[in-house]
Amino acid sequence: MRPSNWPRAAPVLLRWREDPGQRGEPNRPPALATLLSTFVESEATELSPKPHSVIAMYPGSFDPITNGHLDLIRRGARLFDKLVVSVLRNHDKTPLFSLDERIEMLREVVQDYPNVEVDSFTGLLVDHAAACLATVVLRGIRAISDYDYELQMAHMNHRLQPGIETVFLMSHEENSFISSRLVKEVFGLGGNISGLVPPSVEARLHRRLSERQIVEVG
Ligand code: PNS
Q: Does any domain span residue 126?
């Protein structure tokens, strides 16, 4: 069965078939992400009904995952049909945990949520979201200080991909001061971080500390 917005994706395919290619370049098929984003985009530019199944993407660095992140995942998993937790690769910052470690830690703590998946991305978030057919980007706001940055990102992402909405959840009060950066700083200086990160993450932090002294806080 064809998706309901197939007519709007078809011109992309037809353009490819009809365009003989510029200056002798091979006429390659459109990238899968381009085709998929056509579907996502067409969902929101017209007043079409809500998709049957809403996929949300929760992006971040997760270096490491905190109880604040975990709370957002738990609430996102209840709100959306599927939640993809996506870890940014190639971030400017030097992470404490490698990409594989961050993914592993996330998978460990989301195993009780059958509709939550963990993956990673590079490049533009909205391109990855569109390729996963996500129509929602989920972000948390802890305090007013988060708001400016999040608002800018939401507007930019909307400009890049109007079919994707950013949905904000307010962090619960007890998590509103937790950040990965502060957890690493407090832990590195010998402070107690229990209750701020899942126990499995705390154990990894202890292992990491015994491997090397955390001298630099990312
Ligand atoms: O947990 P973080 O570090 O606050 O997450 C930031 C993240 C990963 C959401 C943001 O840096 C991002 O989306 N990066 C991907 C590159 C991109 O799409 N940039 C344009 C954003 S408007």
A: yes
Which residues lie closer than 8 Å to 175 by C-beta, 6 or more apart? 66, 67, 68, 71, 142
The reported pTM is 0.80
Distance from Cα 77 to the centre of ligand 1, integer Å: 21
Q: Whole domain around residue 87: which residue ranges? A: 55-175
Asked if 140 and 85 count as a contact pair (C-beta separation under 8 A), the reply is no
CATH of the domain at 126: 3.40.50.620
For residue 200, being part of any structural domain is answered with: no
Give the tens place of pLDDT for each residue, 116-149: 999 999 999 999 999 999 999 999 999 999 999 9
| Position in ligand 1 atom list of the atom nearest CA 93 | 3
* Ligand 1 pocket, CB under 6 A: 59-61, 88, 124-125, 153, 156-157
- Give per-residue pLDDT as tens, 69-123: 999 999 999 999 999 999 999 766 789 999 999 999 999 999 999 999 999 999 9
Residues that are catalytic = 69, 93, 142, 180
Q: Note whether 65 and 159 are within 8 A (CB).
A: no
